[in-house]
Amino acid sequence: MMRILVVSTNTLLRPMPVLPVGAGMVYSALTAAGFSTRFLDLAFVAEPLQALREELRVTGADLICLSVRNIDNQVIQQPESYFAFIQEVMQVCRTCSSAKVMLGGAAMLVMPLELVQELGADYGIKGSGGEAEAVRLAREIEQEKAPETGTVRNADPAYHPVYSRIPPKSLFAPQYFIPNPRIKKASMGYQASRGCSRHCIYCSEGYMNSGACRIPAEQFSEDMKILETDYQVHNITFVDGVFNHEVEETVEFCRLIGRTSPSLEWSCALTPAHVTEDLIRSLKETGCRFVDIGADSGSRQMLRRMGKQFTPEQLVELGRLLEQYQLPYSVSLLFGGPGENEETVQETVQRVNQMNPVYILASQGIRVYPHTALYNIALQEQVIHPSDNLLFPAYYQSKDYSADLLTDALSASRHIYKDMLMNSIGGRT
């Protein structure tokens, strides 16, 4: 029987530790498939590299599955790369074990081939649904039918009835379940759909237009029972990039939540593109307690250039409906995209003045990833060069934008704006 070690490499604990559900699902899938599987989470370990060395010594693994969540913090003002630590993890795997190494996780959505090549991994899996693909690849390795070294497989986003299941709570450290009163959203994340139907210029999923796949109703119901009985969790955050891909389908899913878990409280991210009063009423009636609006901008020109599929009027209307149904919400903005200038910044601030969010998160400059529309724009404008290694952060910022423009515009703001580190950057109450 092949021995497999699944490692969650994320060690970030602020602003809140993120439960490695994806890595846990890979562990559970491989275990269900009959492999001898162990799980190592480096998040709460004092000496993570030493813990990995010891685990490799004990396990004697034939295959190591590394889950990589973040490459860097995506903050242009205080850039911080995590790639060096991932390289150290990979070095430990190579020096302490002869096992094959498979890469997965959220980072593989944005730079799959680049990560596999730079780290020298044997295989990689890109996309949601990696748990089923990990089983397939592990079986091929066991049967000595493994693909060529350096191969990256695209995962099928469809939910597998056996492998796409919530792992047992006992797999995770108890620190993940300590509530943080400063955070509006629940620490327990749950993905109810995979893929994305949006076309945001900075996102590889939107660029490839992979579409969205919702979890089957029966599987969702069973998962909610596990959360309530095993995890004893009654408050979750749907971590889907967009919760409301289509109005009618989302309303029906809300009704499923109400039937399955009438006491569940939850939060989600909404796009203003697909919103009706019936949808917002359904959110409220089935336990939604907080909404993130990933607006990016309030400028008509910038929304078009950023690939957003809604208008400024739809953004304000979503805010109005949420306020009508007493659902608190936040607004996330991205300043400095292609064509951003003094006029568009002021337009965004004035538009958001018509809303009443609990808080506003404002990023300045946009992280450039390959396989995106923004990558092509950055090349054309010579912000980056084709030979640049984007595993190390590069940012796009319009030549007509500066932080001073935002500071000046915020003098007319009704709200306080915060950066991604939750520091105030201007505005007033």
Structural notes for this entry:
The protein is an alpha/beta fold and 429 residues long. Helix content is 34%, strand content 19%. The strands form 4 sheets. It has an 8-stranded mixed β-sheet with strand order 7-10-11-12-13-14-17-18, covered by helices on one side. Helix 4 links the parallel strand 4 and strand 5. Helix 1 crosses helix 5, helix 2 packs parallel to helix 3 and helix 8 packs parallel to helix 9. The chain starts with a strand and ends with a strand. The model has no long low-confidence stretch (mean pLDDT 93).
Give the structure's gist in a few sentences.
With 429 residues, this protein is of the alpha/beta class.
List the helices and strands and how they pair.
Layout: E1 3-8, H1 21-32, E2 36-41, H2 48-59, E3 63-67, H3 83-96, E4 100-104, H4 112-119, E5 123-126, H5 130-142, E6 151-154, E7 189-190, E8 193-196, H6 204-208, E9 211-214, H7 217-229, E10 235-238, H8 247-260, E11 265-270, H9 277-285, E12 288-296, H10 300-305, H11 312-324, E13 329-335, H12 342-352, E14 359-364, E15 366-367, H13 373-380, E16 395-396, H14 403-409, E17 416-418, E18 424-427
Parallel strand pairs: 1-2, 1-3, 3-4, 4-5, 5-6, 7-10, 10-11, 11-12, 12-13, 13-14, 14-17
Antiparallel strand pairs: 8-9, 15-16, 17-18
Helix pairs in contact: 1-5, 2-3, 7-8, 8-9
Which regions contain 5 or more consecutive residues with pLDDT less than 50? Answer: none
Shape: globular
Treating each run of at least 4 consecutive H or I residues as one helix, how many helices?
14
| Backbone structural class | alpha/beta
Q: How big is the Rg?
A: 22 Å
Largest sheet: 8 strands, mixed
Helix content: 25-40%
Major β-sheet strand ordering? 7-10-11-12-13-14-17-18
